[in-house]
Design goal:
67% helix, two-stranded antiparallel ribbon, single chain, mainly alpha
């Protein structure tokens, strides 16, 4: 059925999918940390602060709790059956073949458009130093360089991502320490006005009303896209049974430090009314502090964050296309690995489509970021919903004795998955209400039609795909891709 030959280790239940298990513990940990720090925080937070004021901190915290529920649900599924195409595989097993097909292709779309967003952000950051360079030129250069990194080997990808993430983590901790120094010691140009009272002194904590704050949730959720990437690494992790739970369980403190902590400090140092869309709040805050070269350093860090996320997107798209090919849901060429055991064909096609982002930066540079982030958010929400529904079905099967229990059960069982699912549905309605963001729902409708047509064609050519009922079978536990 596929050129992606797979074997199964029955002792551990861990599939061997032909990939090189080249991602060590430190790399998986940093990929997980890096996934929680992206352009949605560094770039998107400016627009969200302008809409919600200091209450944006509460919105990031609320969304962070929901993301933790999603990741624990995913963690339980990953330790039940760790596979590289995790989201699509679980949807296929617990909801039926069509949902596996739709989830795999939608997650692929999410990363293609996220890659466009990151290229756009990176090009904007380059303007900080070189305003004469057109956005599309910078975006194209970054696209080509990262493409090369992903074709070499998963070890190179992991090492590059490790250092990208290390830069982001070190920088944010440094920002928090400096900000706290300004608040407590009063040094720098911002020392006279920096105070925690900035969190409520300028028209209150909810300056534009609770409704406006809630409407930022769709933008806030974009900031958390990629936290689930750790699930895609399952097929290439050296020891997924140990590295994956550790990576997931450290998520709460990452959210507290990198989102809640960093934004609390920044909004205390600089009053919220000074921030605006299209500008990184981190760059603005340190420019305000007046530390020599600080704004340039922060700009380098946020540039690194954008490139890190784009790098992860190229990695993810190739693996998801290979999983689809392994299930006869994509051209068989996507199932092939090159001599370095990377899915080169899938990566190449995905990168070529990310090049549309270069075109957007040429045609509509001022709208490119908004368009692609809204589409990516909609695709990400679908993926998270599929994780949650698959988890709910899995727990029902375990409770009924049809499947073995995972070694990493989610707290609260299926209850918290239901809570997170309802939250995501509410965010979807908010997207529909927002005239700027609802463009992604038009794209989603067109994408749904394309998926329906594609599935009908596949079933016509390959009737054994079936329409599937999604009823899990006991022998699925520990089963590898076919």
């Amino acid at each position: 059925m596929t050129s992606a030959k797979v074997t199964d280790d029955r002792a551990t239940g861990t599939p061997e999918e032909g990939y090189e298990r080249g991602l060590g513990s430190r790399q998986v940990q940093m990929i997980a940390i890096g996934g929680a720090i992206g352009v949605g925080l560094f770039m998107g937070a400016g627009a969200n602060i302008a809409k919600a004021g200091p209450s944006i901190v509460l919105m990031y915290a609320l969304a962070g709790v929901v993301i933790f529920f999603i990741m624990r649900a995913l963690g339980e599924l990953l330790l039940y059956r760790p596979v590289s195409g995790s989201f699509a595989e679980y949807a296929r097993e617990f909801l039926g073949p069509f949902f596996g097909f739709a989830t795999g292709w939608t997650y692929w779309l999410m990363w293609v458009v996220t890659g466009m967003a990151e290229l756009t952000a990176a090009a904007i950051y380059i303007h900080f130093w070189f305003p004469e360079i057109p956005q599309w030129v910078s975006a194209l250069v970054f696209l080509v360089v990262l493409f090369g990194v992903n074709l070499i080997s998963v070890k190179i990808f992991g090492e590059v991502e490790f250092w990208f993430s290390m830069i982001k983590v070190t920088a944010i901790i440094g920002m928090i320490v400096i900000g706290l120094g300004v608040l407590t010691l009063g040094f720098s140009d911002a020392g006279d006005t920096a105070t925690v009272a900035n969190l409520w002194s300028h028209d209150g904590f909810f300056p534009n009303g609770i409704g406006s704050s809630l409407m930022t949730l769709q933008g806030v959720m974009f900031a958390y896209l990629a936290v689930e990437l750790v699930g895609v690494t399952a097929g290439e992790s050296e020891n997924p049974e140990k590295t994956l739970p550790k990576a997931i369980n450290t998520l709460p403190w990452r959210i507290i430090v990198f989102y809640v902590g960093a934004l609390l400090v920044i909004l205390s140092v600089v009053k919220w009314t000074e921030f605006s869309a299209g500008e990184s709040p981190f760059v603005h805050a340190f420019g305000k502090i007046g530390i020599p070269l600080a704004a340039g350093i922060v700009n380098f860090v946020v540039l690194t964050a954008a490139l890190s996320s784009c790098n992860s997107g190229m990695y993810s798209t190739g693996r998801m296309l290979r999983d689809l090919a392994a299930n006869s849901e994509a051209p068989q060429a996507f199932g092939k690995l090159n001599s370095r055991r990377t899915p080169a064909v899938g990566i190449t096609v995905s990168v070529a489509l990310m090049g549309i982002g270069v075109v957007l930066n040429y045609v509509v540079p001022e709208k490119a970021f908004l368009y692609v982030t809204s589409v990516a958010t909609a695709a990400g929400i679908w993926t998270w919903m599929m994780i949650l529904v698959s988890h709910i079905r899995y727990r029902a099967a375990v409770d009924a004795g049809r499947l073995r229990a995972s070694s990493f059960p989610a707290p609260g069982g299926a209850l918290f998955s239901w809570v997170a699912l309802l939250f995501l549905i509410a965010v979807t309605f908010m997207i529909a209400y927002d005239k700027d963001a609802r463009v992604c729902l038009y794209v989603a409708a067109g994408w749904a039609v394309a998926l329906g047509v594609g599935w009908a064609v596949l079933k016509g050519r390959n009737p054994q795909l079936g329409d599937g009922g999604g009823e899990p079978e006991p022998e699925k536990a520990g089963q590898a891709l076919r």
